[in-house]
Amino acid sequence: MTTPHGAARPTTGGGARLHGYRATVAVAMSNYIEAGSIIALATSLTLWQEHFGLSNLAVGLAAALSANAFGAAVGAMVGGPLGDRYGRKFIYTYDLLLYMLGTAFIVFAGAPWMLFVGIVLTGIAVGAGVPVAWTYIAEEAPDDQRARHVGTAQLAWSLGPFVGFVLATALVPLGLLGSRIIFAHLFVIAFVTWWVRRGLAESDVWTESNAKQVALGRRRRGFKELVSHPQNVKALLFLVGVYALWNTVAGQAGIFMPRVYATAGVESAVAQNLLQVLVWGLTSAATFWGFMKYGDRVSRRLLYGIGAVMAVAAWMILAFVPHVSMPLLVAYAVLWGVSAGIGAQAFYALWTAELFATAYRASAQGVLFFVARIAVGLLSYLFPTMLAEQGVPFVGGIMVALLVASLVIGVVWTPDTAGKSLKEIERERYGADLDDAEAAAPR
Questions:
Q1: What is the distance between the alpha carbons of residues 72 and 63, in angstroms, rounded to a whole number?
Q2: Long-range CB contacts for residues 172-181, cutoff 8 Å, separation at least 24
Q3: Helix, strand or coil for residue 2?
Q4: Distance (Å, rounded) from C-alpha 273 to C-alpha 163?
Q5: How far apart are CA 384 and CA 63, in angstroms?
Q6: Which tens digit of pLDDT belongs to each residue from 77-117?
Q7: Cα-Cα-Cα-Cα dihedral of 413, 415, 416, 420, to 10°?
Q8: pTM score of the predicted model
Q9: pLDDT of 121-145, one tens digit each?
Q10: Sign of CA pseudo-dihedral 315, 318, 320, 321
């Protein structure tokens, strides 16, 4: 790893030295693993339901406890504060070990309890790792390339489902064995990522802030401190509006979309998976050619607004068109796929890193991730039943309402942070560098 001045700095732990963009990629793999877990479960829920004789409510519970919802929420509330107190690298020492244990339970699940234990463990692991990943990447990124670096995590997040649905399509003839193979591939990816990450050094920004706190004999790194400052409360409310509302929709689309397609008349598992391959392929392309290329160069309000409008238009097709045909489903896939690449999640990851001081940046990520995944979990528990009993237009209408709210909040209150250093943003928002202010204050 290099310091802000370009000098090499030592790493801790074993493994090859990671620096620059290679470190960003290694950390961003948390997002590949998270999204891959969601899709691996999404493409196998019906198979697990048939294999174990689970009810629709049990399927909803599995989705609610997963990396898509409550499991990740619990992990985020634990991992975020720990990442602020003990360092970003601390989380990477342990999170993927827990993740590998969880995927092993799922791969070899011979009873429902093994499946549910694996789902919960993988959820907690990714919940702990993803918020800290976004924090680390933003802290290590050059000021004028922060969107590009944060976008790498978004790209990994979209590639996970893309690969997952490609594998699911290819392995359809194998039934549940094919799903076990998909989880096994995630186990391998997690192990390789854990091994490579041993060469990561600690975040320079966190190291500097922590050193000042230690010198002062203070540990300003907790939820109480986070919510005690008015600027933090404003940022939390803004980002809940931007991300939690959008993610409640994305969470249902991520794990239940094959069921939505089936309810709309697409009964072939191959056709369902190919529609999702299109969605995630376009999400990956839009992330790279849209957010990563232009997030540091054009109006963020404009870019966010374009993505948010496309998301609303996509779900309006499902909610308000009386008879959804395959061409309309393709139109949905194109609109939703592109919007996800340049929309709320990418900007959320960027803005959350920018709008909070270093001492509780990861805690803020954890709190917001927790809120977003709780919202997903609450709706996920009921979603399969509502879909079966009320149909696509009913659930589509709920999705449209949530997306419109996220659109308005993000466009109206877009923060002016592009091109500024994290310290500069901190001084503007808090009136001072908080670490320096505390150091200068009389004791």
A1: 11
A2: 172/269, 172/270, 172/273, 175/47, 176/44, 176/47, 176/48, 176/51, 179/40, 179/43, 179/44, 179/47, 179/48, 180/106, 180/107, 180/108, 180/109
A3: strand
A4: 11
A5: 10
A6: 899 888 888 888 888 888 999 999 999 999 999 999 999 99
A7: 180
A8: 0.83
A9: 999 998 998 888 888 888 888 888 9
A10: positive
